[in-house]
Amino acid sequence: MEVVKEKARIRKIVQEAQAAGRTAGLVPTMGFFHEGHLELMRRARADCDLVVVTLFVNPTQFTPGEDFEDYPRDFERDREMAASVGVDYIFNPEVEEMYPEGFSTHVEVEGISDILCGAIRPGHFRGVATVVAKLFNIVPANKAYFGRKDAQQVAVIKRMAADLDFPLEVIGVDTVREPDGLAMSSRNTYLGEQERLDALVLSEALGVAAGMIASGERSAAEVTKAMRGVFDALPSVNLEYIAICDNIYLRPLSELHGEVLIAVAARVGKARLIDNMLFEVE
Ligand code: AMP
Asked: Could you give the CA distance from residue 126 to residue 60 in angstroms, rounded to a whole number?
């Protein structure tokens, strides 16, 4: 496995592989790998001839006062973990390589960027869409892999790839969880001992929703009320939102039918955590 710092070099590597008839898979990340990241890499490894992981803590997707400076970083550990699942290249540019002086073009995916997490983190999805559009151009892959844990991010990127005619397939990969149900996240390292226990409230509330849907409940208001009750029992956790919506436009649903996304966001100590489940409801 090789680490590449320059845009021109990684693009040439991918283009030459494709000219020789090989397919390329792209896994964009901000590093500090866990099993969720490795699962995306394994999927790419299984599907594609060449696997490129990008590791870039993108400053433009952090809003003012967020954790850009404190975001966990451990390049040597990441390098070993990526090599262990057969990644071919890590593209790890410096900020100046991605945003040279004079940079002034941004990608705005209107509508779905301004709701849910976008309402709480204004400008976040503009930063995500812009850097991912750049990565799609720098690493002209055949397939790109994103975690469904970030369901709104997947929706924003699928929309952007369709709207801007990027000739690649955007693939969503299921959320990888800790044995007790907590969705894996680089930000889980911020959690103290008690906070780590409290953080289970997100997956527990989603479990309550799953149970209600399995028992025939179809009212979004009833499911939201029950989920809210789970959070109310734990006042140390600050619930940001519970959303019951479709999985493409993220529009709120009142009746649960078809593909239904239930998403939650909450603050536990200094960590902002998100989780969701996708249901196929008859
Ligand atoms: P990040 O480094 O946090 O920006 O995440 C890089 C990619 O890994 C994104 O596509 C995330 O959605 C995905 N990812 C993060 N956590 C998980 C998880 N627990 N399960 C599956 N994918 C994940």
From this structure: 8
Which pLDDT tens digit goes with each residue over 19-35? 999 999 999 999 999 99
Asked about 37 being catalytic, the answer comes back as yes
Mean per-residue pLDDT of the chain: 98
Which among 34, 37, 106, 257 is annotated as catalytic?
37
Distances (CA, A) of 168 to 21, 24, 160, 213, 231: 16, 10, 11, 35, 40
Residue to mutate, 149, 202, 275, ligand 1, most ligand atoms under 8 Å from C-beta? 149
26 touches ligand 1 (CB under 6 Å): no
pLDDT at 153: 98
Q: Comparing C-alpha atoms, which of 93, 101, 173 is closest to residue 139?
A: 93
Please give the C-alpha separations between residue 206 and each of 145, 154, 178, in angstroms, as whole numbers. 24, 19, 15
Decide: 213 and 256 in contact? Cβ < 8 Å: yes
Q: Residue 26 C-alpha to ligand 1 middle, in angstroms?
A: 13
Is residue 247 within 6 Å of ligand 1 at its C-beta?
no
For residue 127 and ligand 1, the question of a CB distance below 6 A is answered with no
Q: Enter the DSSP assignment of 100.
A: -
- Bridge partners (DSSP) of residue 255 are 219
HSE-CB of 104 using CA atoms within 13 angstroms: 2
**Ligand 1 lined by 62 (C-beta under 6 Å):** no
Residues 208-262 have pLDDT tens digits of 999 999 999 999 999 999 999 999 999 999 999 999 999 999 999 999 999 999 9
